[in-house]
Predict the structure of N-acetyltransferase domain-containing protein.
Amino acid sequence: MLSSPTSNVLDLPEIDTLYTGRPVVIDFMTEQELTETYNMIQEAAKHGEGYGIDEFNSEKEFREEIRGSDCFVIKCAESGTILAGVIVAVSKFYRGHGSIADPFVIVKRTERKQGLGEFAMRTSIDFAKRLGYMGMYVDTFSNNTAIIKIIEKIGGFVQVGCLPVGGKLQNGNTVGSVIFYTNLSDVNNNVVNET
Ligand SMILES: CC(C)(COP(=O)(O)OP(=O)(O)OC[C@H]1O[C@@H](n2cnc3c(N)ncnc32)[C@H](O)[C@@H]1OP(=O)(O)O)[C@@H](O)C(=O)NCCC(=O)NCCS
């Protein structure tokens, strides 16, 4: 199992139910499931969905990028097959030590539009909180209607910025990014804009 030093605060596997009534299992990710997650991310990138075409040039590079992150899978309770990957990484937008989370969420293409994306995003927020993160930045491509819809539906996020060039799509065009932030701690961390 892939886990960080903080993962022991989570007692997994957990069993839950999607709004469709489908039972799912949330567990720590295995090495094999990390490879499957990488392949799902690469496939999404090829379809211009959520990840840049040149974001990860190899699985090795991807693994280096998420080293030290907490990696989880959402699996079908009946078959045990992976439905979605959830990685709680440390955000690069905070210039300190591991206080702000950056979630990677990916749903298997054949399993989309059944509420798994929202479930996976809610899981990343819940787990980031339980892992002690103070807040979360979500950096999403501006054309990613589904994840933006999910963030707005979950609530509590504030759009704090946008980047004119966020990544490259499969057709060679660049796409902008939208950055959202949510506070995860019980302490009121006011976001102050000072110039
Ligand atoms: C984004 C993603 C996680 C959504 O997964 P999903 O399982 O389809 O999401 P849900 O079923 O929970 O759908 C959430 C909402 O988005 C809508 N939605 C889903 N896919 C959509 C699409 N392609 N275009 C527009 N809306 C879409 C759903 O209809 C639903 O809206 P509703 O609540 O009004 O019914 C999935 O498309 C994915 O893995 N994409 C590639 C990776 C990615 O973009 N990750 C996020 C990077 S920041």
